[in-house]
Amino acid sequence: MSDLVVQRPEGLYCPPGDFYIDPWRPVPRAVITHAHSDHARYGNGHYLAAAPAEGVLRARLGEIALQTLPYGERIAHHGVTVSLHPAGHVLGSAQVRLEHGGRVWVASGDYKVAPDPTCTPFEAVRCDVFITESTFGLPIYRWCPDDEVFAEVNAWWARNAAHARASVLCCYSFGKAQRVLAGVDPSIGPIIVHGAVRPLNEAYRAEGVPLPDTRMVTEVTDKADLRRCLVVCPPGAAASPWLRRFGDAQTAFASGWMQVRGNRRRGGYDRGFVLSDHADWPGLLQAIDATGAERIIVTHGSSGAMVRYLGERGLRAESFQTEYGDDVVEADLQPASEAGA
């Protein structure tokens, strides 16, 4: 019996349904797991995504032929029953459940199992075959609870503010930035966001996600605010002229990669906070076990290590070669409207 999902040059393809999942080249029909730029690309003829993803997809891709589906609702296409289920990664992220000929496959996209107030929690979906990410698929990656991480972030910000220094926290503009904003203590000082972050904040708020008040740097009238603020911006902004207006600022990067000593130094940051929107090693294993799948297909990240480990546990494990990043690589760090602003 042929597989429900196979590899093609354009991406992961469902032959009986004649559609792709997160294709990296333009195709007629695409099912999109989430709006990060390595999974949702411009140029497809038709897009299907979870309903909560509509705002962020349109913010990033503009006018596209987009069909949305509430979580859990099923539709049939060429005899394949398709439904989308929460992935807990970012707003609107989804796992794609495919049912055809009595078989069930689930393509996870990116996911995390830890709680996150900015998106719908991960939902385990029973299946025969599970296509899982493995971005942080090594035993070294084990995340601390968010409240511990944000206690560190708030303490760092408060110390800097007491010394009249801005706190510049670099993180991906979609997903991580909103999670940071939801987790910090806004009573410490004003919060300024980069222009790449603002439209995504608006999309989150439109979906009912509460975020603290934020300002653009051009909206700051009291220069003293620039010496006690928290600045949330994408990584590329830290090396741009945009940052100069904050003076002698302290910089930090929020990422799962900060788990490994040396990444902070190589990035030139003063601090590193371990905060990821992907599952850690225990989370990946927890999610895989919960599916009940006997066959696991691993994509991107530490796929070789994960395949070996699962094989040793008696599962049928293999990998797909994809063009997804090991984490998000944002090509749109600084929109033209923000250049030099």
What is the H-and-E element order?
Answer: EEEEEHEEEEEEHEHEHEEHEHEHE
How is the largest sheet built, in terms of strand order?
7-8-9-10-11-17-18
CATH topology of the largest domain: Metallo-beta-lactamase, Chain A
Measured as a percent range, the helix fraction is: 10-25%
- Label the structural class: alpha/beta
Instruction: Based on Cα principal axes, name the global outline.
Output: globular
Number of E strands: 18
Distance between the termini: 57 Å
Uncertain parts:
328-341
- Specify the number of helices: 7
What would CATH call the architecture of the largest domain? 4-Layer Sandwich
Mean pLDDT: 92
Biggest beta sheet attributes:
7 strands, mixed
Count of all domains: 2
Strand residue content: 15-25%
CATH class of the largest domain: Alpha Beta
Based on CA atoms alone, the radius of gyration comes out at 20 Å
Explain the overall architecture.
- InterPro entries: MBL, RibonucZ/Hydroxyglut_hydro, Xnuc_lig_assoc.
- This is Ligase-associated DNA damage response exonuclease.
- GO terms for molecular function: exonuclease activity; ligase activity; RNA endonuclease activity.
- It is an enzyme of class 3 (hydrolase).
- Its EC number is 3.1.-.-.
- This protein has 341 residues and is an alpha/beta fold.
- It has two domains: 6-140 and 278-338, Metallo-beta-lactamase, Chain A (4-Layer Sandwich); 146-273, Rossmann fold.
- Helices cover 20% and strands 24% of the residues.
- It has seven helices and 18 strands.
- The protein has helices spanning 54-61, 146-162, 176-183, 198-206, 263-267, 281-291, 303-312; strands at 6-8, 11-14, 19-21, 29-31, 46-50, 66-69, 74-77, 80-86, 94-100, 103-107, 129-134, 167-170, 191-193, 230-233, 250-254, 271-273, 295-301, 316-320.
- A seven-stranded mixed β-sheet has the order 7-8-9-10-11-17-18, covered by helices on one side.
- Helix 1 links the parallel strand 5 and strand 6.
- It starts with 5 loop residues before the first strand and ends in a 21-residue tail after the last strand.
- The model is unreliable at 328-341 (pLDDT under 50).
